[in-house]
Write a structure and sequence with these properties.
By secondary structure, this protein is mainly α. Helix content is 53%, strand content 6%.
Length: 66
């Protein structure tokens, strides 16, 4: 399972809130909900997050066995 626990830490370090993602970068509320619950998201979303946070994929997502 892909989990996004690292995303929240990276966002905090970069001072980016979910509000900022919604208002400045037009993230849909459902996308943020999917991230919070480790549900499926698109690679485009992952790419956009890496660009916004100026980070690598490993800084926002991690694979954990079920």
């Amino acid at each position: 399972m892909i989990v996004f626990d690292r995303l929240w830490k990276t966002m905090k370090e970069k001072n980016v809130s979910t509000y900022t993602l919604r208002e400045k970068y037009d993230f849909h509320t459902d996308t943020i909900k999917n991230l919070r619950h480790n549900h499926n998201i698109t690679t485009n979303t992952l790419s956009k997050l890496c660009e916004i946070l100026d980070c690598e994929l490993k800084d926002i997502a991690e694979y954990k066995q079920d």
